[in-house]
Structure formats: C-alpha cells, structure tokens
Amino acid sequence: FVRRTEWQKVQTLLLFAQYEENRIHQILYLGSPCVFSTAAQQRSTGDECGPEDPRDEPKHPLSDCALQHKAIKLEEQVRDLTERYRKALADSENVRRRTQKFVEDAKLFGIQSFCRDLVEVADILEKTAESAAEEAEPSNPNPTLKKIYEGLSLIEAKLQSVFAKHGLQKMNPVGGKYDPYDHEIVCHVPAEGVQPGTIALVTQDGYKLHGRTIRHALVGVAVESQE
What H or E segment, with its residue span, contains residue 93? Predict the structure, then answer.
C-alpha cells in the first residue's frame, strides 16, 4: 500500500511538471518575435479587417530572464521526479525479488521442523536394524530374527528413498574434512597415517534439506598421536 501511494505521488508530480512545461512553451510562443510581427501586421490592416480583439494580446508577458528561470526550475523538477521514479522502480523490483525468494524458501524449507523430528525416528530404526543384524547371525537358528532384520532393512531403505525424494539427504562424512557448518566435534581421535583434521568416526549422522544443514553430524576428528 505504501509503495502504491508513493507511485501515485510520483505520477501526480510528473503530470504537474508536464503541465507547467506546456504552459511555459505557450508563453514563449506568445512572446516570440514571430507572434509580435503577426500582431503588427494585423494592426496595420485593422481598418480593413475590423477592430482588433484585445483578448488576442498577452496581458502579462514574462521577461526572458523570468522565462529562463522558470524553464530551469522545471528542468530541475523533471530531473528530480525522474530520479524518484527510478528509485521507486528499483525499490519495487527489490521487494518483488525478496517476496519471490521468501515464497521459494517457504516451499523448500516449510517441512524443516518436521524433518528434524523424522530423522530421529530414522536413527531409532537404524539402531534397531543393527541390533537385529547382530542377533540374526547364521549361528542363530531362530528364523524369526532373520525375517525381522530383513523387514527392518527394507523399511530403512524405503525411508531413505522417501527422504531423498523430498531433498533430505544423510551425511556420513567419515574420511572427509571437518567443516564447522556441517559437523560438530564430540571427540578427538589419535590416528596414525591420517591427516589431522580428518573425520575418523561419526557417532550420529547429519542431515541436509535441499543443501541446507538441518542437523550437524556428530564426529570424532583425527589428531596427531603423541607418543
């Protein structure tokens, strides 16, 4: 509403400046030598054509200095209005872009809080599947545990597929470089043959939603071993 009111003011000022400019042109035309010459010719033939109408002559002609000053003032007003018009257009474009960016972010990250809660369910499912895998070893004759493990594995795979479909990706950065924007250090691990700053272990996977980190990965970073 505020932008529309400002735009209406700019339009009104532009119309006023155009009106003043046209009026100055009319005054300049009435005060030009050509007009005076035509008026003199009409006065010389006034006896033949009849009396001259006094309304044809300008009542209050302006001096050249006054006209020039008025023209300069109008030019300044036009420049000022043009500059304000450009600024209003730039502000309007900036508002449009910010609004569009806000709408796009709302579409992409509107489920961010829901995803944070859902990845905790994925953690529980993953740990349960790992426990079932340990119990469902070939040495264990119980076929039920094996079926439970297979079912949990299928559910976990399907859940990760749904996550990927909606832009939610797991981060397991073992062997990668530590990044404070994606990882959180929970411990330091002495390791030989590994460059310091490399992630040696992950205690909790991180997650990204459309490239934005919504949960940092909890990691252990390798340091030089001190013997």
Answer: helix 64-109
Contact call for residues 188 and 154 (beta carbons, < 8 A): no
Give me the amino acid identity at 47.
Answer: D
Q: Which domain holds residue 161?
A: 111-166
Per the structure, the count of domains in the chain is: 3
My answer on whether 97 and 117 are in the same domain is no
Are 197 and 154 a contacting pair, CB within 8 Å?
no
**CA 27 to CA 62: how far, in whole Å?**
8
Q: Is the pTM of this model over 0.90?
A: no
φ, ψ at 196 (rounded to 5°): -55, 140
208, two tokens: 């990204």
Task: Tell me the per-residue pLDDT of 152-206, one tens digit each, with 9 for 90 and over.
Answer: 889 999 999 999 999 999 998 898 899 999 999 999 888 777 888 889 899 999 9
User: pLDDT, tens digit, for every residue of 31-86?
Assistant: 544 444 444 445 444 444 444 554 555 545 556 677 777 778 888 888 888 888 88
Nearest in space to 170 (alpha carbons), one of 157, 153, 154, 179: 157
The residue type at 18 = Q
Q: Note whether 29 and 87 are same-domain residues.
A: yes
Cα(149)–Cα(134) distance, rounded to whole angstroms? 9
